[in-house]
Amino acid sequence: MLLSLHEAGAQSVEANKSGLRADVVFAQREGGDVALDIYLPEQHSDELHPVVLYIHGGGWQGGDKAEGRIFLSNPVANGWIGVSTNYRLSQQATWPAQIDDVHAALEWITAHAGELHADPQKIVVAGGSAGGHLSLMCGLDQRAWQDYQVIGCFSLYGPTDFLADEWNGHNIRYMLVNMLGADPVDDTELARDASPLYYADSRDVPVFMVHGDADVLVPYSQSELLLEQLEGLGVDARLLRVPGGNHGNFDETSPDWTEIARQFLQWSNKLARHEESPETDDSQADTTAH
Asked: Is the pTM of this model over 0.70?
């Protein structure tokens, strides 16, 4: 399903006034600890809360879990537990260290679910750019899942296929080589192993992607490729196209952010309630079959 953002309505996003547990170490790796931040809902009851795990971007070589604060503010204000995680960057370790750390964060959440009043069977994974890539990998490759259940994955302009010709000579290529520890042209097996596209399966959880069609860093076609693959398999997948949107400009300063946040929360809430095929409200967005 292809959605177009600029014909959608907008609603305000509540500020997050929840409690923060910062710098919680969940893994000890060679070179240092790996930590996460936890944002608890203000109305924190004994009921189990669904969880959003946010994965930051930065070309696999930069960024920090603090970037998750803005993204998580809306779901946390609406009863979700927000978790924003770090992971080893490419200067510290190469693939698959990054996705291994994301899985370790999910395992930590599961182990501490009782303490957090979290429901490990209702986890949505989300991320932007490199974090969007890791979110898709986490949702589509289910081999590492333990006692938790990812019910959906959300990607803001994340890459999906490292074997695509469009990476040749592209300005993100050096980041990709650093993350993989090899050139994808020389090691196609490794590039395939790190590409969400090749994990697409009819059993996959719902996928929601947002991508600007003027993205100069991660081509819009990367999200189109995965959308086509998933829809061909009958998976609930959608792509929200942001007309004129470039890479990394969807945040609280962007006029598009309020609507993106609204649609993400609506989609996540329907997944947490186990409603079939969550749809975007037609009164708020124009939807067109892809």
From this structure: yes
